[in-house]
Amino acid sequence: MTTTASGSTDTGTAETGARRGFEEIDILWISEGMSCDGDTVSMTASGQPAIEDIVQGLIPGLPKVNLHNKVLSPTLGGESFLAPFRAAARGDLGPFILVIEGSVPNQNIIDGEGYWTSFGNDPETGEPLTLNWWIDRLAPRAWAVVAAGTCATFGGIHAMAGNPTGCMGLADYLGWDFRSQGALPIVNVPGCPIQPENFMETLTWLLYHAAGSAPPPPLDRNLRPQWLFGKTVHEGCDRAAYYEQADFAKDYNSPKCQVRVGCWGPVVNCNVPKRGWMSGVGGCPNVGGICIGCTMPGFPDAFMPFMDEPSGGSLSATLIKPYGAVMRRLRGITNYALNREPKWHHNGPELTSGYNPRWRP
Asked: pTM of the prediction?
Protein backbone atom coordinates (compact mmCIF):
# COMPACT_ATOMS: atom_id res chain seq x y z
CA MET A 1 0.00 0.00 0.00
CA THR A 2 1.34 3.45 -0.89
CA THR A 3 0.37 6.86 0.40
CA THR A 4 -0.05 9.58 -2.22
CA ALA A 5 0.97 13.21 -1.99
CA SER A 6 -2.66 14.17 -1.43
CA GLY A 7 -2.96 11.87 1.57
CA SER A 8 -5.08 9.17 -0.07
CA THR A 9 -4.09 5.53 -0.19
CA ASP A 10 -3.71 3.29 -3.20
CA THR A 11 -4.36 -0.34 -2.32
CA GLY A 12 -3.12 -1.88 -5.55
CA THR A 13 -2.84 -1.26 -9.25
CA ALA A 14 -4.89 1.31 -11.10
CA GLU A 15 -7.00 -1.45 -12.58
CA THR A 16 -7.71 -2.80 -9.10
CA GLY A 17 -8.60 0.72 -7.99
CA ALA A 18 -10.95 1.17 -10.92
CA ARG A 19 -12.66 -2.05 -9.96
CA ARG A 20 -12.91 -1.35 -6.21
CA GLY A 21 -13.19 2.39 -6.48
CA PHE A 22 -11.13 5.29 -5.20
CA GLU A 23 -12.06 7.41 -2.21
CA GLU A 24 -10.00 10.37 -3.35
CA ILE A 25 -8.67 11.50 -6.72
CA ASP A 26 -6.83 14.52 -8.10
CA ILE A 27 -7.60 16.34 -11.34
CA LEU A 28 -4.49 17.85 -12.91
CA TRP A 29 -5.69 20.35 -15.51
CA ILE A 30 -3.06 21.83 -17.84
CA SER A 31 -4.28 24.58 -20.15
CA GLU A 32 -0.87 25.47 -21.54
CA GLY A 33 -1.64 23.87 -24.89
CA MET A 34 -2.12 26.18 -27.86
CA SER A 35 -5.44 27.67 -26.82
CA CYS A 36 -7.26 30.65 -25.35
CA ASP A 37 -8.29 29.01 -22.02
CA GLY A 38 -11.88 29.35 -23.22
CA ASP A 39 -12.71 25.78 -22.25
CA THR A 40 -11.92 26.42 -18.58
CA VAL A 41 -13.99 29.59 -18.68
CA SER A 42 -16.88 27.79 -20.38
CA MET A 43 -16.75 24.89 -17.92
CA THR A 44 -17.40 27.26 -15.01
CA ALA A 45 -20.84 28.02 -16.49
CA SER A 46 -22.08 24.47 -15.94
CA GLY A 47 -24.90 24.00 -13.46
CA GLN A 48 -25.71 20.30 -13.99
CA PRO A 49 -23.43 19.66 -12.24
CA ALA A 50 -21.36 22.67 -11.28
CA ILE A 51 -17.64 22.21 -10.73
CA GLU A 52 -18.16 23.71 -7.27
CA ASP A 53 -20.57 20.89 -6.38
CA ILE A 54 -17.98 18.27 -7.31
CA VAL A 55 -15.08 19.93 -5.49
CA GLN A 56 -17.18 20.52 -2.36
CA GLY A 57 -18.36 16.92 -2.31
CA LEU A 58 -22.04 17.72 -2.75
CA ILE A 59 -22.75 14.93 -5.26
CA PRO A 60 -23.37 11.56 -3.58
CA GLY A 61 -21.20 8.64 -4.60
CA LEU A 62 -18.24 10.55 -6.00
CA PRO A 63 -14.71 10.32 -4.59
CA LYS A 64 -13.21 13.36 -2.91
CA VAL A 65 -11.87 15.55 -5.72
CA ASN A 66 -8.82 17.80 -5.56
CA LEU A 67 -8.89 20.14 -8.57
CA HIS A 68 -5.69 21.77 -9.79
CA ASN A 69 -6.57 24.32 -12.48
CA LYS A 70 -4.73 27.63 -12.80
CA VAL A 71 -7.92 29.66 -13.27
CA LEU A 72 -9.71 28.09 -10.30
CA SER A 73 -6.73 27.37 -8.04
CA PRO A 74 -6.87 28.68 -4.45
CA THR A 75 -3.04 28.80 -4.35
CA LEU A 76 -0.96 31.88 -4.89
CA GLY A 77 0.50 30.30 -8.00
CA GLY A 78 4.13 29.56 -8.76
CA GLU A 79 5.68 26.53 -7.09
CA SER A 80 2.73 26.15 -4.75
CA PHE A 81 0.47 25.55 -7.74
CA LEU A 82 3.01 23.35 -9.54
CA ALA A 83 3.65 21.07 -6.53
CA PRO A 84 1.03 18.39 -7.35
CA PHE A 85 2.07 18.36 -11.01
CA ARG A 86 5.70 17.83 -10.06
CA ALA A 87 4.71 15.11 -7.59
CA ALA A 88 2.68 13.32 -10.27
CA ALA A 89 5.59 13.54 -12.73
CA ARG A 90 7.81 11.85 -10.12
CA GLY A 91 5.22 9.14 -9.54
CA ASP A 92 4.41 10.38 -6.01
CA LEU A 93 0.78 11.36 -6.67
CA GLY A 94 -2.06 9.05 -7.60
CA PRO A 95 -4.62 8.35 -8.68
CA PHE A 96 -5.21 11.37 -10.88
CA ILE A 97 -7.11 12.43 -13.98
CA LEU A 98 -5.07 14.44 -16.47
CA VAL A 99 -7.00 17.10 -18.38
CA ILE A 100 -5.27 18.77 -21.31
CA GLU A 101 -6.66 22.00 -22.77
CA GLY A 102 -5.23 23.31 -26.02
CA SER A 103 -3.56 21.64 -28.98
CA VAL A 104 -0.18 19.95 -28.71
CA PRO A 105 2.60 21.54 -30.77
CA ASN A 106 5.26 19.49 -32.53
CA GLN A 107 8.52 20.21 -30.72
CA ASN A 108 10.44 17.98 -33.16
CA ILE A 109 10.13 20.47 -36.01
CA ILE A 110 12.04 23.17 -34.15
CA ASP A 111 15.57 23.31 -35.51
CA GLY A 112 17.71 24.33 -32.59
CA GLU A 113 16.70 25.91 -29.29
CA GLY A 114 13.26 27.20 -28.44
CA TYR A 115 9.82 25.92 -27.60
CA TRP A 116 6.21 26.54 -28.57
CA THR A 117 4.56 26.56 -25.14
CA SER A 118 5.66 25.79 -21.61
CA PHE A 119 4.34 25.08 -18.12
CA GLY A 120 6.69 25.98 -15.27
CA ASN A 121 10.48 25.81 -15.26
CA ASP A 122 13.03 23.11 -14.57
CA PRO A 123 14.13 23.78 -10.95
CA GLU A 124 17.71 22.76 -11.75
CA THR A 125 18.34 24.64 -14.98
CA GLY A 126 15.64 27.29 -14.88
CA GLU A 127 14.69 26.41 -18.46
CA PRO A 128 10.99 26.27 -19.39
CA LEU A 129 9.37 22.82 -19.32
CA THR A 130 7.37 22.28 -22.49
CA LEU A 131 3.82 21.01 -22.59
CA ASN A 132 5.17 17.94 -24.39
CA TRP A 133 7.53 17.24 -21.46
CA TRP A 134 4.61 17.20 -19.05
CA ILE A 135 2.39 15.05 -21.28
CA ASP A 136 5.19 12.52 -21.76
CA ARG A 137 5.52 12.10 -17.98
CA LEU A 138 1.96 12.52 -16.76
CA ALA A 139 -0.15 10.71 -19.37
CA PRO A 140 1.40 7.25 -18.79
CA ARG A 141 0.81 7.63 -15.01
CA ALA A 142 -2.72 9.05 -15.22
CA TRP A 143 -5.72 6.94 -14.24
CA ALA A 144 -7.65 8.72 -17.03
CA VAL A 145 -6.74 11.28 -19.68
CA VAL A 146 -9.26 13.85 -20.93
CA ALA A 147 -8.91 16.27 -23.85
CA ALA A 148 -11.02 19.38 -23.17
CA GLY A 149 -12.13 21.36 -26.22
CA THR A 150 -11.53 20.98 -29.94
CA CYS A 151 -7.95 22.23 -29.82
CA ALA A 152 -7.00 19.40 -27.44
CA THR A 153 -9.15 16.77 -29.13
CA PHE A 154 -8.45 17.33 -32.82
CA GLY A 155 -6.04 20.27 -33.06
CA GLY A 156 -8.61 22.98 -33.70
CA ILE A 157 -7.85 26.47 -34.95
CA HIS A 158 -4.14 26.27 -34.16
CA ALA A 159 -3.72 23.14 -36.28
CA MET A 160 -5.29 24.53 -39.45
CA ALA A 161 -3.49 24.53 -42.76
CA GLY A 162 -0.50 26.84 -42.89
CA ASN A 163 0.22 26.87 -39.16
CA PRO A 164 3.94 26.89 -38.25
CA THR A 165 3.64 24.85 -35.04
CA GLY A 166 2.67 21.44 -36.41
CA CYS A 167 -0.13 21.38 -33.81
CA MET A 168 -2.25 18.29 -33.29
CA GLY A 169 -4.81 16.80 -30.95
CA LEU A 170 -3.83 14.83 -27.87
CA ALA A 171 -4.75 11.48 -29.47
CA ASP A 172 -2.56 12.34 -32.47
CA TYR A 173 0.30 12.94 -30.06
CA LEU A 174 -0.15 9.97 -27.71
CA GLY A 175 -1.63 7.62 -30.30
CA TRP A 176 -5.27 6.73 -30.86
CA ASP A 177 -4.70 3.37 -29.22
CA PHE A 178 -3.34 4.95 -26.02
CA ARG A 179 -4.67 3.48 -22.78
CA SER A 180 -4.37 5.09 -19.36
CA GLN A 181 -3.57 3.39 -16.05
CA GLY A 182 -7.30 2.87 -15.69
CA ALA A 183 -7.31 1.00 -19.03
CA LEU A 184 -9.27 3.87 -20.61
CA PRO A 185 -8.74 5.47 -24.00
CA ILE A 186 -8.36 9.23 -24.18
CA VAL A 187 -11.75 10.84 -23.60
CA ASN A 188 -12.33 13.59 -26.18
CA VAL A 189 -14.85 16.31 -25.33
CA PRO A 190 -14.74 18.68 -28.32
CA GLY A 191 -16.29 22.11 -28.71
CA CYS A 192 -14.92 25.55 -29.42
CA PRO A 193 -15.31 26.02 -26.53
CA ILE A 194 -16.76 22.98 -24.77
CA GLN A 195 -20.46 23.08 -23.98
CA PRO A 196 -20.36 23.40 -20.16
CA GLU A 197 -22.69 20.55 -19.23
CA ASN A 198 -21.24 18.26 -21.90
CA PHE A 199 -17.85 18.43 -20.21
CA MET A 200 -19.06 18.27 -16.64
CA GLU A 201 -21.42 15.38 -17.39
CA THR A 202 -18.54 13.45 -18.93
CA LEU A 203 -16.24 14.24 -16.01
CA THR A 204 -18.93 13.15 -13.55
CA TRP A 205 -19.33 9.84 -15.39
CA LEU A 206 -15.56 9.32 -15.17
CA LEU A 207 -15.62 10.09 -11.45
CA TYR A 208 -18.43 7.60 -10.85
CA HIS A 209 -16.34 5.07 -12.78
CA ALA A 210 -13.37 5.96 -10.58
CA ALA A 211 -15.58 5.36 -7.55
CA GLY A 212 -16.37 1.90 -8.90
CA SER A 213 -20.09 2.56 -9.31
CA ALA A 214 -20.34 3.04 -13.10
CA PRO A 215 -18.92 1.41 -16.24
CA PRO A 216 -16.49 3.31 -18.49
CA PRO A 217 -18.19 6.00 -20.58
CA PRO A 218 -19.11 4.79 -24.09
CA LEU A 219 -17.12 6.56 -26.79
CA ASP A 220 -17.51 6.80 -30.56
CA ARG A 221 -14.71 6.09 -33.04
CA ASN A 222 -13.35 9.60 -32.51
CA LEU A 223 -13.31 8.97 -28.73
CA ARG A 224 -16.18 11.39 -28.10
CA PRO A 225 -18.90 10.54 -25.54
CA GLN A 226 -21.39 8.64 -27.65
CA TRP A 227 -24.52 9.79 -25.85
CA LEU A 228 -23.56 13.44 -26.45
CA PHE A 229 -22.22 13.29 -30.01
CA GLY A 230 -24.18 10.39 -31.49
CA LYS A 231 -26.70 12.64 -33.28
CA THR A 232 -26.33 15.58 -35.60
CA VAL A 233 -27.08 19.23 -34.97
CA HIS A 234 -29.87 18.97 -37.54
CA GLU A 235 -31.61 16.14 -35.67
CA GLY A 236 -31.98 18.31 -32.59
CA CYS A 237 -32.50 21.69 -34.28
CA ASP A 238 -35.83 23.48 -33.99
CA ARG A 239 -35.27 24.80 -37.52
CA ALA A 240 -35.11 21.30 -39.05
CA ALA A 241 -38.77 21.28 -40.12
CA TYR A 242 -38.09 24.27 -42.37
CA TYR A 243 -35.45 22.19 -44.17
CA GLU A 244 -37.96 19.40 -44.76
CA GLN A 245 -40.32 21.91 -46.32
CA ALA A 246 -37.51 23.49 -48.38
CA ASP A 247 -38.08 26.79 -46.62
CA PHE A 248 -34.61 28.30 -46.30
CA ALA A 249 -33.36 31.48 -44.68
CA LYS A 250 -31.89 34.11 -46.98
CA ASP A 251 -30.23 36.07 -44.18
CA TYR A 252 -29.28 35.61 -40.54
CA ASN A 253 -32.36 37.39 -39.18
CA SER A 254 -34.67 34.62 -40.36
CA PRO A 255 -36.01 31.85 -38.06
CA LYS A 256 -35.91 29.38 -40.96
CA CYS A 257 -33.32 26.74 -41.90
CA GLN A 258 -29.87 28.26 -42.41
CA VAL A 259 -28.29 25.63 -44.68
CA ARG A 260 -28.25 28.04 -47.63
CA VAL A 261 -26.43 30.71 -45.59
CA GLY A 262 -23.63 28.50 -44.30
CA CYS A 263 -24.97 26.07 -41.67
CA TRP A 264 -23.33 22.62 -41.56
CA GLY A 265 -25.81 21.26 -39.01
CA PRO A 266 -27.12 18.29 -41.07
CA VAL A 267 -23.69 16.59 -41.04
CA VAL A 268 -22.13 17.73 -37.72
CA ASN A 269 -22.23 15.63 -34.56
CA CYS A 270 -23.27 17.90 -31.70
CA ASN A 271 -26.15 18.19 -29.21
CA VAL A 272 -26.07 21.94 -28.59
CA PRO A 273 -29.45 22.76 -30.21
CA LYS A 274 -31.17 20.37 -27.79
CA ARG A 275 -29.06 21.12 -24.71
CA GLY A 276 -28.65 24.86 -25.19
CA TRP A 277 -25.61 26.62 -23.82
CA MET A 278 -26.29 27.89 -20.30
CA SER A 279 -29.23 26.57 -18.28
CA GLY A 280 -30.79 25.22 -21.46
CA VAL A 281 -30.72 28.61 -23.18
CA GLY A 282 -28.75 29.56 -26.29
CA GLY A 283 -26.66 27.42 -28.61
CA CYS A 284 -25.56 28.39 -32.11
CA PRO A 285 -28.64 27.67 -34.32
CA ASN A 286 -31.00 28.49 -31.44
CA VAL A 287 -29.91 32.12 -31.48
CA GLY A 288 -29.46 32.56 -35.23
CA GLY A 289 -25.88 31.38 -35.58
CA ILE A 290 -24.84 28.86 -38.19
CA CYS A 291 -23.13 25.61 -37.22
CA ILE A 292 -19.48 25.74 -38.35
CA GLY A 293 -18.63 22.18 -37.26
CA CYS A 294 -16.44 22.96 -34.25
CA THR A 295 -16.93 19.52 -32.67
CA MET A 296 -15.62 17.66 -35.74
CA PRO A 297 -12.10 16.32 -36.46
CA GLY A 298 -12.02 18.25 -39.77
CA PHE A 299 -12.58 21.64 -38.10
CA PRO A 300 -11.76 24.29 -39.18
CA ASP A 301 -10.29 23.46 -42.60
CA ALA A 302 -13.15 21.27 -43.87
CA PHE A 303 -15.75 23.93 -43.00
CA MET A 304 -14.18 27.07 -44.43
CA PRO A 305 -15.06 29.68 -45.57
CA PHE A 306 -17.51 29.67 -42.65
CA MET A 307 -20.20 31.90 -44.13
CA ASP A 308 -20.36 30.15 -47.51
CA GLU A 309 -23.03 27.61 -48.38
CA PRO A 310 -21.75 24.11 -47.43
CA SER A 311 -20.64 21.77 -50.15
CA GLY A 312 -23.63 19.64 -51.01
CA GLY A 313 -26.00 22.16 -49.49
CA SER A 314 -27.14 23.49 -52.85
CA LEU A 315 -27.76 19.98 -54.21
CA SER A 316 -29.72 18.77 -51.18
CA ALA A 317 -31.73 21.99 -51.08
CA THR A 318 -32.56 21.64 -54.76
CA LEU A 319 -33.56 17.98 -54.46
CA ILE A 320 -35.89 18.63 -51.55
CA LYS A 321 -37.50 21.69 -53.18
CA PRO A 322 -40.32 19.92 -55.08
CA TYR A 323 -41.13 17.67 -52.11
CA GLY A 324 -41.06 20.63 -49.75
CA ALA A 325 -43.28 22.73 -52.00
CA VAL A 326 -45.94 19.99 -52.14
CA MET A 327 -45.77 19.32 -48.41
CA ARG A 328 -46.01 23.02 -47.55
CA ARG A 329 -49.15 23.32 -49.74
CA LEU A 330 -50.83 20.22 -48.34
CA ARG A 331 -50.03 21.17 -44.77
CA GLY A 332 -51.30 24.68 -45.45
CA ILE A 333 -54.65 23.27 -46.61
CA THR A 334 -54.90 21.02 -43.57
CA ASN A 335 -53.84 23.85 -41.29
CA TYR A 336 -56.57 26.06 -42.73
CA ALA A 337 -59.18 23.34 -42.18
CA LEU A 338 -58.09 22.72 -38.60
CA ASN A 339 -58.20 26.43 -37.83
CA ARG A 340 -61.98 26.46 -38.36
CA GLU A 341 -64.49 25.74 -35.63
CA PRO A 342 -67.15 23.01 -36.15
CA LYS A 343 -70.33 24.33 -37.78
CA TRP A 344 -72.53 23.36 -34.81
CA HIS A 345 -70.93 26.06 -32.66
CA HIS A 346 -73.76 28.60 -32.96
CA ASN A 347 -76.44 30.31 -30.91
CA GLY A 348 -79.42 29.27 -33.09
CA PRO A 349 -82.65 27.48 -31.99
CA GLU A 350 -81.65 24.11 -33.51
CA LEU A 351 -79.26 21.51 -32.05
CA THR A 352 -77.00 20.63 -35.00
CA SER A 353 -74.14 18.86 -33.23
CA GLY A 354 -75.35 15.42 -34.30
CA TYR A 355 -76.37 14.47 -30.77
CA ASN A 356 -78.46 11.30 -31.04
CA PRO A 357 -79.26 9.39 -27.82
CA ARG A 358 -79.83 6.02 -29.51
CA TRP A 359 -80.03 4.15 -26.20
CA ARG A 360 -83.27 5.93 -25.25
CA PRO A 361 -86.64 4.43 -26.24
From this structure: 0.86
Backbone angles phi, psi at 269, to 5 degrees: -85, 110
What span, in angstroms and rounded, lies between the C-alpha atoms of 289 and 307? Answer: 10
Nearest CA among 266, 226, 204 for reference residue 51: 204
Give the bridge partners for 9, in sequence order: 3
DSSP string, 117-133: -EEEE-TTT-PEEEHHH
Q: Is 345 annotated as a binding residue?
A: no
282-322 pLDDT tens trace: 999 999 999 999 999 999 999 999 988 887 777 788 888 88
* Residue 209 assigned ligand-binding role: no
Q: Check the annotation: does 270 bind a ligand.
A: no
Domains recognised in the chain with CATH numbers: 2-229 (3.40.50.700), 231-339 (4.10.480.10)
Give the pLDDT confidence of 28-81 residue by residue, as tens digits. 999 999 999 999 999 999 999 999 999 999 999 999 999 999 999 989 889 999
Residue 192 in marked binding region: yes
Determine if residue 167 is labeled as part of a ligand binding site. no
Q: Phi and psi of 36, rounded to 5°?
A: -115, 5
